[in-house]
């Protein structure tokens, strides 16, 4: 059985290193002995400069494998490991082992840091025993952490159990905890808690790094446990914060923010004896993460007033807040501060990308482009910020070009860049470019990413390629509710509501809990096919899931019942809705209008205005259509005037056509002609002559 396990591990590691991420930049052969006794001629200086960037430096230790200079050979091992040439380093290490030349602990530390596969980690582990370093606590702790990071928990446990005096020191246990944190990816809290309990049972004393790993495991969890947070807090108070109150209180504050307990986080922040830039940055990032933008800006101002130097980490947290608040003038002040203090430092690239995003969110594309093109270190983050800015400011064509421009600069789009450009392809219905991005994502092993697959389903659906949408959905390993909803929506938009209904039933059979978006899509399908019975079935799911109080769901229910002719049911749903708003009011007005209850619909519109609900453009479109159907020209003129003058909404061509039809039907030709002239001016259309049409 051990041989089978090792063979499986070796095959899995071989598969792993075939991934482009683990392949070396170029093949490096093992050191070979010289065939000529004389050294080669020294090339000219210019040739040396040109070859320096393309050819790795060859050391004397590589050229003379018969050397027994342990320090020089260990230095060469460190150099190869740091250069990412791990196969060459392992070949040299094999040679040293055969000749009995010992390698230093620092060389093994560099090799462990360079390992990216389980096969290489096990090779280095075997050499540790050969070189007599299998009792070095530092190297064994690094090995434990490496095994856990590579997913080999059994190997890590075997190393830890074999360590001498494992219960007397916290160093090896901290490596175990840190390895669980690195490997956990959102689910490390349980293993870390178990290891912490075992550590205390073994008699090892926890220090600040131990508690730091515990706090990181809680805050990094997908569902942070408040019980674990309070228990850790109590333990820290009992142990006087392990002599490091600033560091651990900052981590504890971050945990409370992640648990949604803002008041407790603020209390921990206020109890800090001293607040450094890390503590201030954690507080600002916590407020920003919880959407408390004003509080984040206030703490940033207090930080500056307290005399704490602002670093790039704090700026990357506060700049997006300014963009979401559309505070362009404050953003310009931050921009000036960045230019004055940081200049062209390399670590300011993320801040510059944030400034690009901030200006774009404020609608100032000119300043955003100026910051972008003045940056000397453009990367995938800054290109994605510019791409997102073009897309959000009505320039999807430019956003699509950015994905090609960034590759012309030698920058490969990352997962976020691909996820940003796919909705642009959806909006432009760019089928060819969407397929190219799909192929790129496959080559870069971004798939099967759930978010990207969902975007691909939506993109192919908008391009009328339902076969491709279904194929992407079928190839998904984990079919989420969002993916099901995207496929249902694709069939609805392509005029196939019956298939959409069948897909919704299939989703329910997989025990997936539909969200509000999926429910509204199904109710929309019921409207399209007039399926009242199916709509009532969906309403039953809404009641079961307790979604009826949601305004979006309630409005769609009212719309479904009104479209299917059950006005009483629509009225009952509207009356039960506690949080009424413009969305639900528009739906009930539309329901009465569809069922030829024009006066009641206009009375509901008047009731909506009297209760201080702000009508939207969709509300005015519905009311004007009702006036058109009822022939109420005077009411339509008043509503049109209120829409344009009082609520400052732009009238569409459909709104103008409605008024023109009503006035023409009432014999008010001159007024109708004025509206026709205004429509032609606004939309660059030829002016029709209503007098000739009337004749």
TrEMBL record:
Q: Answer yes or no on keyword Transit peptide.
A: yes
- Compositional bias (Pro residues): 30-41
Give start and end residues of every PPR repeat: 276-310, 379-413, 480-514, 581-615
Q: Which domain of life is it from?
A: Eukaryota
**Region span, Disordered:** 24-70
* PROSITE patterns from the UniProt entry: PPR
Repeat as UniProt keyword = yes
Q: Which Pfam families match?
A: PPR, PPR_2, PPR_3
Q: Which UniProt keywords apply?
A: Repeat, Transit peptide
**Name of the protein in its database record:** Pentatricopeptide repeat-containing protein
